[in-house]
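Need tokens for this chain, all 328 residues.
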Amino acid sequence: MKTIEWTNGKVRIIDQTKLPHKLVFVTISTLQQMVKAIKTMQIRGAPAIGVAAAFGMVLGAADLRKTAKKLLDSRPTAVNLKWAVERMQNIANAGKGFSPSQLKELLLKEALLMAEEDVLTNKKMGWYGAKVVKRGMRILTVCNAGALATVDYGTALGVIRAAHEQGKKIHVYSAETRPRLQGGKLTTWELQRSRIPFTMITDNMIGHFMQKGEIDLVVTGADRIARNGDSANKIGTYAAAVLAKAHGIPFYIAAPVSTIDFNIKTGKQIVIEERSPEEVLQVGKERIAPQGTKVKNPAFDVTPAKYIKGIITEKGIFKPGNLEMLGT
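Here are the structure tokens for all 328 residues:
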């Protein structure tokens, strides 16, 4: 089951805001609908957003300059979105002189290729990442970096999936990931469908279970990785990495090379998206704080490279300080 795909001249996505209670597919036929889907997190996860942006460029092919700006403004942290838009712009530049219909066909061909590449990339990542997973390991993951965050298979959850497929008898701890609960809603849904044993815990239980010796490995995804290996991922990842370091637990990032932003030197240059206060003030439709409560709601934090044992990519596993060789 693909998170996003092109079918009958339109884009079909899984509406992730309805999970885990309902599996709902949404059809997107305009650029405006795609931008809204990205902003409202009907589709989310850096690789999936990248492919969504590519299809968005196809839908908005009549005015690619405005289309690119609208897509780039939809969510600022995930670099895959920018990477995809720029790749599509390069294809458009190569097709100068084409008729509008020919140009759209050229863009669609590239977007479909990107979707296919994403699945292959994730499976390669899973194969490499499974090498660090020993039989019987208990693995913590934060947020959702599974098939739902990609076209299919997943990044961090792709590593877990590959290890499970190899019969390594793993057990997953899924941190709920406040405030939007992607770990509780989405990762658990995927793990259950894949029949991978798991336990859900709240974010503030991570240290407790590490202290008790019940977590052996941490694998998370990333939305943007700086040249030095500093990695931005869902808020709470940094705390998990610090706790892992304190308890001597290996902490890995799994992300495609397209998530590495070779234009920025360190994580200090990563723009962190600030989302609506309502995400923190409410759980579902129930308000949990008094009226007038001030809220900060950064969607991501940055884990410094010193806390990361390795970055798992489709080209192998690299120490954070060795990423520059991938950009040459």
